[in-house]
Each structure stands twice: as structure tokens, then as C-alpha cells.
């Protein structure tokens, strides 16, 4: 089986078959992570570059471990110490990496659409590690992987996504992915953090968090970016927490076996209470493990690991 | 213009002459002699005149683009007066109105004279300068509009920068009354569009780009209309782009206020969905942004009804370095002179939205009336500025063949039907069959 997609840029444009193939492949990759010796030779001789224009702990580490477990070489470019500081354009930086022989570029960038731009100027596959407020497709896939693993299916699930939908690339990727897989999605947050016409993406939207959470199979809490407060989009973290924070009481409105998810890093006590974050319903740590498995699957499928086997 | 000497007599034969200023739409010959229109009629003969066979073509007054950015002085790598006016000639325009936001800006009489002097040396079409409303385009102190009007400025505008301070706008409108010139305003409430790069709506939500609400434009249009009522000064709304703006203009017109407006070809033909469908092509980034299909419909209706007086390109050439970057970092603007006519003929005339006479009106006598120009008609004795358009000619837009230095267009690769084939300025042929010959 091969992917139809040449790049991993956005779940909006990824066919359902590709998502299914990635999720199925990730299942067998996950088994490698639990081996005592986590190294398979699948991508030996391949070089994967991570180019991160924004800080990241888990996404970058997750991609690097995924590549290393399959014996690829990894190079990471931190923009704070690179020629970017000397004013080099994204195009020039990326083409430089390409002519040095990298086989794949994984990029995180603060501007929406930057990965599409990169894919136009490079010949090698590009993986979007999060572009501005647009998408974070590998996060969407690992979230779906987690739901599917725990619930046995995605079709028919009711997923509530709570928080700053407006600025969230995680929300957008989950919405497109889940809709394509047959789940239903409801989003909730302060009115200033719900973008216009979000319903046209095929979701319900409500400012009443209880309404969104009620009878949900999955409650996904987004990170509140506290710098938004400075822009006047909400008055205080305290009020946010009181009106939209996910607490035991609110989580109890969901189905009894509902999953609680968060892409991390968490602001404990603001968008999510520690009581629920550390409860058995929480999949937050497992999401991280699954992230490695999903990224292994993507690298394997994109870099033609299949042909050498 | 650098066109010198007496032009040869030229007989444009057998075309469909469309001159809305005179109410003409009929098959006729046009004889140009000594830089003026000598004769309109049937079966004209002229010894020694060159003949252009225009059967099946539209012969119209030289087109006027009342909103272009020629980038000279200061940003000549993007465009200059020579390249920009060649682009105009290629696009069928015989007069362009050059905005004041050069570097330094055209904010005093010496700068107006400097633009006219450069144009006299290098331009192949007529260049009419706009003067700034405020010194340095800073929106604070009025520029010397009287001096600039005497030096040849045809209007005043801080285009590129909205005049945010209502008191400054009030004074500008009041003061400009003394010279009978309009203030052209780029209407946009800046606090509502900070960091925004496209229209606020469904597609900005999908793309995760910051959006400019239509209301940011409409708030300032409404303010300007009220200030026109207060002062009696003439307001011209640059690049109207929303349905709400159209409604405001309609009621201002009904009230008889001195308010006019223009719309660009791209805002009449493209929508914000293009940003999505081109996967963030920075050539779709323009200010005001491409709006929704409903806005396009409203603008088209306004154009047909005359609520919008003029079509202007807002030709905004940029170097590829300004566009080959991330979407948020790219410059706003589209290079528009060389695609305007075929886009409008294809999307509006061939599609049956407006008749050719309306299109010609909005590109000739419409802007001429706003600016008080003699151009815009083929009346006998008037300047021999003529454009011939072949409505059946089909070509693909190829930015690499632009005369403009700005190749920034979202229309690359589009097949369009209805291209200009002859441009005549003061009797001189400056473009023939798409080739600039001046």
C-alpha cells in the first residue's frame, strides 16, 4: 500500500484512505516502541531534517525519535542559531537543506500556509509540524489513533473540542480528520475564540461548555495561549477557567467512559483541572507515545521504506 | 510623454465605435490627424493615412486607469515610470493616474513637477500625478494641496494609508474644495485590520489566517460619506470591495452627496476562496482583500447601475522577492494593468453581466468626470487617444511576458478572451497587436 499524498500538509486535503493507511501502519509501529531494543533498519541511509521556527518539545522530539527508531539520520535546525538570524529567507534555507541531501523536511512555522509554500519550492516530501493557526496534521492523526485504539472506532463518535478554537491548528486538523472518518464534532469556547463560520466546516459550535461536553465520547481540551489575554480576547485566565475550564463536574456530563485528551503542554488549573488530567479517563500521556508511532508510520510510508523490505 | 514629433495620420476602419460620452455605439471609421480626432463617419478616406482594419473590433476612447502605483521614485526595482507606462500601453490604457505613495511621497509641488518631468522623458502614455493629502502620508498635517493642484496634481490621496483621524479627513475635504479636487480615500479602520492578511470569513477560518472584516472598510466609508455631507468636499472611495460599501454608496448617491467610487477588476471577478484554492499563493494577497461571492455580485450590480463610477486597477507591482515568502510576510498588491481589459471583457461582457458600452463608460468618461479630464471621449477635435479591443481574441495570461516589472498576478495561466490590440496616445501608436512600439 502506498500513500496518495506526497507531502503531509493538511488533513483537509488528505484522502480518507491515506488516513486509514497511516493509522493502520502506526498500529504495528507502536509495537516497536515497546521492544527492549527499539531499532529497525527500515530507513537506514535516509536523512530527515526538522526545521522549527517555533519552540516545541514534544513534536520535535517525537519526530526525531520516530526517525531514529527506524535508523534514519536526523538533523535539527533551531532557527535561533541558524542563518535565519542573518535574514535568510525560508526558501533559501530550505533549498540549502535540500541540496545537502536531506530526504524529508519537517517544519513548524508561525505563519499559516508556510508548509504549502515549502512544498512548492522543494522536491522532497514536506511534513507539516504545525503551521500558524492552520493545521497540525500529525497531531490530528495521533489523536484519532488514540481514539480509535480506545474506542475501537471513529465512526459515530461524538467529540467535543474545548477552548481557543480560533488560534488552534490542532482543532482544525482534528475537525477535518474526524469529519472524514465519520465522527461528529462540537466545538466550544469564549465567543472571541470561536472563528467566524466555523459551522461550515461541518461542526456544531456553542459558547456553553456544558452543552458541548454532554454525552461526548471524547473531550479534547486545547491549550489556552495566555498571550491572547494581552490582545484583549478574554479578560482573565481566572474567568476563563471558571467558565470554560474542564473540571470533574463538567467531565461527568460526558459519557461515563469518555476519554479526556489534551495535546499538551497543559496549563493545569486553567483549561484543565489536575484532578481530571491525572484521572484514568485521561489519555494525555498515551497520546505522546502514539505520536511517535504515528510519525514512524508517516516517515515509513513517505520515504519509501516499503520498497526496501 | 516622450512621444515627439507629429504623428502620421491614422485611419481606424470599420470597427464598432463605442463612445458613451457621445452616446455612440455603431460601426464607423475614425480618422486621427495631428494628434486629435479629425473625423468620425462612414467610408472615410484619407490620403497618406495609415490604415488599421478594425472590423469586428471595438474602437473606444483611450482607457483611463485612475489608480496605479508606478513606484518611481524610490522602488524602481518593482516598477518605474517607463515600465509602468509600457504596461499601461500594453493593457490598452492611454492615461494613468499615479498614486502619491512613492519614496519620498509626492507631498509637495516640487514632487508633482518631478513626476511630470520624469513622465515627459520616459512615459509612453499620459501620467497624471496624485498629491498626498498629508505630509509624508502620515495622516497628521495637511500637505500643500493648493501648490500641488497648480503644479498639476489631479486629486489628493494618502492611498495605502487610510486617513484614520476623522478631524484630519474633515479638514482635508473642506480645504480641497478650494481646488475642486476629490480626496481619494483607502477606507479601512486600522484597528480592525491589524496583522490581517485576507477577508474575514469562512476561508480565513479554514486557512487560519487573520481576517479583515468587511465592516472595517464600511465604517470608514460611512464616516467619509458623513464628512462629505458635513463639509461639501468631494470624496472618492478607492477600490470599493464589499456589499455594505455598495449600500452606503447607493444611499449617499440618492441623497445627492459628492461621493464617487471605483472598483478593481479583481474585486469584480475573484473571491477569497482563491486563497484556499491556490494553497496560499501570495499573489492573491491584496488590500482590500478578495471578498466573498456575495460581495462580487453586489459590486457587479453597482457597476451596472452606475453606483460605482469607475473601474481602476490599483496596479500594485512588486518584485518576486516580496512575494516568494510566507503569506503573512508577503507584500499586498496585484500587478493589474495588463490583465484588466481581457479579464473584464471575459468575466463581465462575454458573461452577459454588462454590455460593452457600460464597461467602456466606467473605463473612460467615468474616471474623466471624477477627475475633470478632457480625455475619455472620441469627440472631434479632442485628443487622439484611442484603444482598440478585439473581443474575440483569446490568449493565456503569461506574466513572464508582462511589460510591467511586477509579475504578481493570481491570473497566470488563465485563458481570457477580449484583448486590446491597438493603443494610440495623442495620435501616436504606442501598442499594436500586444507589442509596445513606442
Report on the architecture of this protein:
The complex is a heterodimer of chains A (309) and B (438). By secondary structure, chain A is of the alpha/beta class. Chain A has helices at residues 16-33, 58-69, 90-99, 114-121, 137-151, 169-180, 209-213, 237-244, 248-251, 274-277, 284-302, 305-308; strands spanning 47-52, 73-78, 104-109, 126-131, 158-162, 184-188, 204-206, 218-221, 259-261. In chain A, the strands form two sheets. Chain A has a five-stranded parallel β-sheet with strand order 7-6-5-8-9. Chain A has a four-stranded parallel β-sheet with strand order 2-1-3-4, with helices on both faces. Chain B has 14 helices and 19 strands. In chain B, the strands form four sheets. In chain B, strands 1, 2, 3, 4, 5, 16, 17, 18 and 19 form a nine-stranded mixed β-sheet that branches. In chain B, 30% of the residues lie in helices and 22% in strands. The longest helix of chain B is centred in the middle third of the chain and has 18 residues, at 214-231. In chain B, helix 2 (109-122) runs parallel beside helix 3 (145-151). Chain B has helices spanning 81-90, 109-122, 145-151, 166-176, 202-207, 214-231, 243-254, 265-269, 273-277, 293-305, 320-323, 340-349, 356-363, 365-371, and strands at 10-19, 24-33, 36-41, 50-53, 58-61, 63-68, 93-98, 126-129, 156-157, 183-185, 198-199, 211-212, 235-237, 259-263, 310-311, 386-396, 415-425, 428-432, 435-436. With 438 residues, chain B is α/β, with parallel strands linked by helices. In chain B, strand 1 and strand 2 (24-33) form a beta hairpin. The interface between A and B is medium-sized, with 26 and 19 residues.
Amino acid at each position: 500500500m502506498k500513500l496518495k499524498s506526497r507531502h503531509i500538509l493538511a488533513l483537509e486535503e488528505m484522502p480518507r484512505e491515506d488516513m486509514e493507511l497511516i493509522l493502520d501502519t502506526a498500529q504495528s509501529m507502536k509495537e516497536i516502541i515497546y521492544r527492549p531494543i527499539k531499532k529497525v533498519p527500515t530507513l537506514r541511509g535516509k536523512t530527515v531534517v526538522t526545521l522549527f521556527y517555533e519552540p516545541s518539545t514534544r513534536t520535535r522530539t517525537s519526530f526525531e525519535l520516530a526517525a531514529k527508531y527506524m535508523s534514519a539520520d536526523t538533523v535539527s535546525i533551531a532557527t535561533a542559531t541558524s542563518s535565519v538570524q542573518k535574514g535568510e529567507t525560508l526558501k533559501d534555507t530550505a533549498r540549502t537543506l535540500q541540496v545537502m541531501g536531506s530526504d524529508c523536511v519537517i517544519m513548524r512555522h508561525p505563519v499559516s500556509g508556510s508548509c504549502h509554500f515549502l512544498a512548492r519550492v522543494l522536491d522532497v516530501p514536506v511534513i507539516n509540524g504545525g503551521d500558524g493557526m492552520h493545521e497540525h496534521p500529525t497531531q490530528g492523526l495521533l489523536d484519532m489513533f488514540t481514539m480509535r485504539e480506545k474506542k475501537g472506532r471513529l465512526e459515530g463518535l461524538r467529540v467535543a473540542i474545548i477552548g481557543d478554537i480560533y488560534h488552534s491548528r490542532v482543532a482544525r486538523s482534528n475537525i477535518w480528520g474526524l469529519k472524514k472518518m465519520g465522527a461528529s464534532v462540537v466545538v466550544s469556547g469564549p465567543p472571541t475564540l470561536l472563528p467566524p463560520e466555523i459551522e461550515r466546516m461541518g461542526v456544531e459550535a456553542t459558547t456553553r461548555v456544558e452543552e458541548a461536553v454532554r454525552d461526548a465520547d471524547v473531550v479534547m481540551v486545547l491549550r489556552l495561549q495566555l498571550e491572547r489575554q494581552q490582545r484583549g480576547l478574554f479578560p482573565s485566565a481566572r474567568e476563563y477557567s471558571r467558565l470554560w475550564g474542564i473540571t470533574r463536574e463538567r467531565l461527568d456530563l460526558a459519557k461515563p467512559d469518555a476519554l479526556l485528551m489534551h495535546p499538551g503542554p497543559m496549563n493545569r488549573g486553567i483549561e484543565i483541572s489536575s484532578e481530571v488530567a491525572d484521572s484514568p479517563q485521561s489519555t494525555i500521556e498515551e497520546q505522546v507515545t502514539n505520536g511517535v508511532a504515528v510519525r514512524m508510520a508517516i516517515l515509513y510510508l513517505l520515504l519509501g521504506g516499503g520498497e526496501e523490505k | 510623454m516622450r512621444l515627439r514629433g507629429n504623428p502620421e495620420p491614422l485611419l481606424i476602419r470599420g470597427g464598432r465605435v463605442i463612445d458613451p460620452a457621445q452616446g455612440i455605439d455603431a460601426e464607423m471609421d475614425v480618422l486621427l490627424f495631428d494628434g486629435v480626432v479629425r473625423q468620425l463617419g462612414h467610408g472615410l478616406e484619407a490620403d497618406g493615412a495609415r490604415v488599421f482594419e478594425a472590423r469586428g473590433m471595438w474602437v473606444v476612447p483611450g482607457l483611463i486607469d485612475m489608480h496605479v502605483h508606478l513606484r518611481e521614485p524610490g522602488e524602481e526595482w518593482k516598477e518605474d515610470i517607463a515600465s509602468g507606462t509600457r504596461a499601461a500601453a500594453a493593457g490598452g490604457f492611454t492615461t494613468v493616474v499615479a498614486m502619491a505613495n512613492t519614496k519620498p511621497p509626492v507631498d509637495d509641488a516640487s514632487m508633482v513637477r518631478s513626476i511630470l518631468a520624469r513622465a515627459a522623458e520616459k512615459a509612453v502614455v499620459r501620467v497624471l500625478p496624485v498629491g498626498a493629502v498629508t505630509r509624508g502620508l502620515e495622516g497628521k498635517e495637511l500637505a500643500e494641496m493648493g501648490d500641488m493642484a497648480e503644479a498639476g496634481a489631479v486629486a489628493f490621496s494618502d492611498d495605502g494609508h487610510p486617513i484614520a483621524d476623522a478631524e484630519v479627513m474633515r479638514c482635508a475635504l473642506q480645504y480641497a474644495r478650494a481646488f475642486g479636487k476629490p480626496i481619494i480615500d483607502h477606507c479601512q479602520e486600522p484597528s480592525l485590520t491589524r496583522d490581517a492578511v485576507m477577508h474575514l470569513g469562512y476561508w480565513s477560518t479554514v486557512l487560519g489566517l487573520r481576517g479583515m472584516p468587511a465592516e472595517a472598510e464600511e465604517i470608514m466609508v460611512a464616516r467619509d460619506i458623513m464628512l462629505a455631507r458635513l463639509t461639501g468636499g468631494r470624496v472618492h472611495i478607492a477600490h470599493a470591495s464589499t456589499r455594505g460599501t455598495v449600500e452606503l454608496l447607493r444611499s449617499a448617491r440618492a441623497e445627492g452627496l459628492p461621493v464617487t467610487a471605483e472598483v478593481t477588476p479583481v474585486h469584480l471577478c475573484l473571491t477569497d476562496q482563491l486563497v484556499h484554492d491556490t494553497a496560499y499563493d501570495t499573489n492573491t494577497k491584496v488590500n482590500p482583500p478578495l471578498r466573498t461571492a456575495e460581495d462580487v455580485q453586489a459590486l457587479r450590480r453597482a457597476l451596472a447601475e452606475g453606483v460605482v463610477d469607475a473601474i481602476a486597477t490599483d496596479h500594485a507591482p512588486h518584485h518576486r522577492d516580496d512575494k516568494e515568502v510566507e503569506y503573512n510576510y508577503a507584500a499586498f498588491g496585484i500587478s493589474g494593468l495588463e490583465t484588466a481589459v481581457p479579464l473584464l471583457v471575459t468575466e463581465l461582457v462575454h458573461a452577459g453581466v454588462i454590455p460593452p458600452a457600460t464597461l467602456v463608460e466606467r473605463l473612460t468618461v467615468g474616471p474623466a468626470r471624477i477627475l475633470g479630464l478632457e480625455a475619455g471621449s472620441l469627440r472631434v477635435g479632442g485628443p487622439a487617444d484611442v484603444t482598440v479591443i478585439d473581443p474575440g481574441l483569446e490568449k493565456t495570461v503569461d506574466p513572464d511576458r508582462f511589460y510591467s516589472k511586477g509579475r504578481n498576478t493570481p491570473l497566470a495561466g488563465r485563458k481570457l478572451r477580449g484583448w486590446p490590440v491597438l493603443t494610440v496616445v495623442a495620435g501616436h501608436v504606442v501598442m499594436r497587436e500586444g507589442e509596445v512600439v513606442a
